[in-house]
Amino acid sequence: MKCGTNVFAPFGFMKDGKIQGIEVELMYEVARRLGIDISINIYKWATLLESMRFGTLDCMFAAFQTKDRLEFMHYTNVPVHISSLVFYVHEDKPMPFKGKISDLQGNRIGIVQGFKNPYDFEKGERRQMYQVFRLRDLEINFKILQKHCIDAVLVNRHVGEYTLGQLKMDGVYPLSVPLTATPAYITFSKFLETKEKELVKDLSYLVPQFDAVLFEIFTDGTYQKIFNKYMNQ
């Protein structure tokens, strides 16, 4: 089974020419327990979705559920993580955010270029409630935050925590209230189901199998061990 993911450390990334990450190891463990042979490669996000839409990949991880994506992908019912989108700020300049877009009024916020933001956040930007700076990568965002050139960085909580650990940067911390918290899932392509009957390859049967094994992995301590391996580096 051909699977794909994107660069989203600590969940998936390349290091020393090898694909690593929390969810990469999780997928291999699921496959091992189910007796399925899988290959995993890293793609750009747009390529991942296109490959799932046209069936050149069998599965991908991890994706939010949207109406459009449901047309060409099956989703597991058990998420592989809850993506909490939070603001990281510098301890010298706390930002009073209580969950409302209006709390961001007048601030300068950094994000990673190409990252799709929640609708309400983009709406606030269009109304010029705050400034949004789209920077090449997360490391640059945090370094500029440390220099007080921006007031906050918006990113997945665990991605931010991992990156700060790699940078060994002090004085930057996440706000406790997330902007959004969205489950992300393993998905399977529906593409081949739309072909002539003799070419049908229905992968929906994998959903309950993956659900059962994911539940085991989350409850028997395996996931926590994998998670700690990367987050404690």
Automatic annotation (TrEMBL):
Residues 2-233 form the Solute-binding protein family 3/N-terminal domain. This is Amino acid ABC transporter periplasmic protein. The keyword Signal applies. InterPro entries: Solute-binding_3/MltF_N (IPR001638). SUPFAM superfamilies: Periplasmic binding protein-like II. It comes from Candidatus Magnetoglobus multicellularis str. Araruama. The keyword Signal applies. Pfam families: SBP_bac_3. It comes from the Bacteria.
